[in-house]
Amino acid sequence: MKTTINAAFDLGGVTLPLSAIHPIRQIKPTDHAFGKYRSMLASIREVGVIEPLMVYPQKGTNGAYLLLDGHMRLKALHELKRTEAFCLISNDDDAFTYNDKVSRLSLIQEHAMIMRSIELGVSAEQIAKALDLDVAKIKASLNLLDGIHPEAVELLKDKPITASSLRCFKKAKAVRQIDMAQLMVSSSNYTRGYAEALIVGTPADQLVQGSKAKISRGLSDEEVVRMEREMEALERDYRISQDQFGENSLHLNATRRYVKRLLDNAKVRKFLGNRYPEVLEEFQVLAAMEML
Known about the structure:
4 domains, Conserved hypothetical protein from pyrococcus furiosus pfu- 392566-001, ParB domain, single chain, alpha/beta, 14 helices, 55% helix, 292 residues
């Protein structure tokens, strides 16, 4: 049986005057990802709009369109005094999907793109101009992943880790870097504070020579040793819980299915209702759960 999937928008696209495009929300400095706006503005100035605006014909009007996706780009185009933009016409007025299913570049992915551009002959000055960044920052970012094990980079490549957190990795040896990356992914914590805590709790023999003295500044030897023991115990307990989670979930779901089958038996349900109504109530709640 063949399934036909209809396109969500007209594939041809059309160039529209900006005056015909009406945003459905206002862009504010407090909006998420507004910090990238200046880079977007510089990129559009240098190379134009790469991703077309997504619009939908406004009902009851002649030639007016609602903007479903691309509010930052529209703002940048207005600021650059542009008069028109290439758009894709949506077949539905659904704005939620476009704004919910956003895939933003992580720091490591952005680094990979910059490195690829350098390899293709684009200068650091050109990249800085296109992204509205300081040239020194672009040049400094070229060694972002130097000294970090490829396996740790692979684990973190699509995660929202910061440059300061990645710098902490360089204080640890390769095996510990992989260990730290796994812990960050498992806990979904990529902050600098957590990275520093992992380094502080790392035994000296797993750190790059000289790193321990820098990290432990302001702490006594006894405090450092205690933090190492506590971090080691915490990591051990976390891994045990993580390892047991899958098995426990399997057992609990098997139990839920068994309870559900019991409650499907009218005699069992009547017996529990007469003798143990509170147990029946809990069983019913358990059986109603889709997944534990």
